[in-house]
Amino acid sequence: MGMVDIFKRRMKVFTLAFVIYLDYKALQQREKFMRKSKRAALWERLHERNAKRVLSLMIELEGLWVKLGQYLSTRADVLPNAYITLLKQLQDSLPPRPVDEVCQTIEKELGQSMDDLFLDFVKAPLATASIAQVHRATLHNGQEVVVKVQHQGVKTIILEDLKNAKSIVDWIAWAEPHYDFSPMIDEWCKEAPKELDFNHEAENTRTVFRNLGCKGNCNDRNPANCVDVLIPEVIQSTERLLVLEYMDGIRLNDTESLEAFGVDKQKLVEEITRAYAHQIYVDGFFNGDPHPGNFLVSKQAPHRPILLDFGLTKLLSSPMKQALAKMFLASAEGDHVALLSAFEEMGLRLRLDLPEQAMEVTSVFFRNSTPSNEALENMKSMAEQRTKNLKVLQEKMKLNQKEVKRFNPVDAFPGDIVIFTRVLNLLRGLSSTMNVRIVYLDIMRPFAESVLDGNISKGPALNAQWINDTPVHSDVEAKLRQLLVELGDADKILGIQVHAITNWCSITM
User: Fold this and answer.
1) What SUPFAM superfamilies does the database record attribute to this sequence (predicted)?
2) What is the CA radius of gyration of the chain?
3) Is the entire prediction scored with pTM above 0.85?
4) What ranges in 111-245 are assigned the alpha helix state H?
5) Which of 19, 165, 224, 294 is a Cys-bridge partner for 309, taking CB atoms 3.0 to 4.6 Å apart?
């Protein structure tokens, strides 16, 4: 890609972003002077008009923009239906790359001819995505495989798209401070290039395969936390090529086939959610891209979910994993003190002391999913809550109307949380797309509890984090911690209960 092509690509992206922004701002101003009866129809036409613009440009540019469109197409819980309907097209295959180009890449990566490599190679691709194209093939030993081949020149395109996306996000944050997605795009800029190395994806696939106990080898100490999913085994990989075991499955958007095979969509999405709860809270290593295109459903009963594409993954440290579990349980219990403690442990800092609003934010994270037909009601409810929160913020901080619009309550947002929240949003969008209702607090709770239980059961001698490394607020607390460390090192603690009243405390052991 030459400099002229890069400049043209950049101009197309920025021009569309500016046009869409002005289109929405114009209607916001116009609706103040029109009857309520006309507003809904105007907004619907506006959404449809801009959704078409977005889809057209994403198909033209491909690269990172297709991945963004795939993500947006799953957010049926919050996005207008016009966007969901049109962007769903990006979950299907894009226009295929020439098979000669694909074969050329395969032979270059593996150093052998196609005839030497495969007994049979199907020229028609199974799927064409933003980064790679997938073909079915048969090895000389008779094994059925899929061959994932990276598009030629896609690395340059992806890196350029990341720069453009970063610039757009910075501009939006300046124009509309409440929509500051800088932490998200910063994390994406750090993680997305890793997807371009298929050796990295191969190792990620093997790791998740082992962690989830695929092929019936569940190693979890708690049998209730075992999950029933399938992941294809890795056969071979290079930087630009990945050969995987072939698994015959049904795409999630193939409604007719799902019904014909009698697939229980509720059970299916619940098992996918359990698999992600295990990855996040138990393993601390999870796939960050659970959009519908990255799942299949096995045709054989009990119709297990097949997890695909582990290019974008996230590894959590033990303290971060425990902090996320603590945040989840604090949200489930409505425990404001534990929630703020979890925020502190994970490095999430707020600019104001409003624990009730912090609780509301996490409750939004873990709220029950809703079918797509409730998306409009969802959006209205969240907009109303946001208005209430802004009013509380304005009173608390004594800000005028202009200041409150530009106030960002988050002082620090750790990168580890970005992919975590992305996964929760994608899972919520998946359940909405499948028209099922998922109670995340019920499904994820056992996994989050097992993390904290496991941390305690290891004992102080084996677990350096058994006392959280949080700031000490008094001499009494410092002495108490030192006592606990000494007792723990001597392995003399079976359990601890601390009661603090004004200036004294009692310890029961």
Assistant:
1) Protein kinase-like (PK-like) (SSF56112)
2) 25
3) no
4) 114-117, 154-175, 182-191, 198-211
5) 294
Q: How far is CA 177 from the centre of its chain?
A: 23
Separation CA 342–CA 321 (nearest Å): 10
What's the pLDDT tens digit per position in 302-315? 999 999 999 889 89
Closest CA to 80 of 423, 349, 378: 378
Residue 111 backbone zone (phi > 0: left; psi -120 to 50: alpha; other: beta): left
Contact by Cβ (8 Å): 493, 457:
no
Q: Give the active site residue among 289, 309, 411, 416.
A: 289
Burial (Cβ within 10 Å: 0-12, 13-18, ≥19) of residue 101: middle
pLDDT in tens, 99-108: 999 999 999 9
Sign for the pseudo-dihedral over CA of 469, 473, 476, 478: positive
Q: Give SS3 for 149.
A: strand
DSSP 350-407: ESS--HHHHHHHHHHHTPPP--GGGHHHHHHHHHHHHHHHHHHHHHHHT--HHHHHT-
Work out the pLDDT band at 459, boundaries 50, 70, 90.
Answer: very low
Contact 83, 51 (CB under 8 A): yes
Residue with tokens 């609780």: 359
DSSP code, position 283: I
Q: Among residues 76, 81, 90, which one has the least CA distance to residue 40?
A: 81
Contact in structure between 97 and 124 (CB atoms under 8 Å) = no
CA end-to-end span of the chain, whole Å?
Answer: 68
The helix-helix angle for 36-61 and 64-73 (nearest 10°) equals: 140
* Residue labelled with tokens 């590894």: 315
Annotation says 491 is catalytic = no
CA distance 128 to 201: 17
Gap between the Cα atoms of 101 and 95, Å rounded: 14
Q: What's the 3-state SS for 290-343?
A: CCHHHEEEECCCCCCEEECCCCCEEECCHHHHHHHHHHHHHHHHCCHHHHHHHH
Q: Which residue has the tokens 């799942």?
A: 295
Computed from CA positions of residues 38, 44, 49, 53, in that sequence, does the dihedral angle turn out positive or negative?
positive
**Is the pLDDT higher at 343 or at 274?**
274
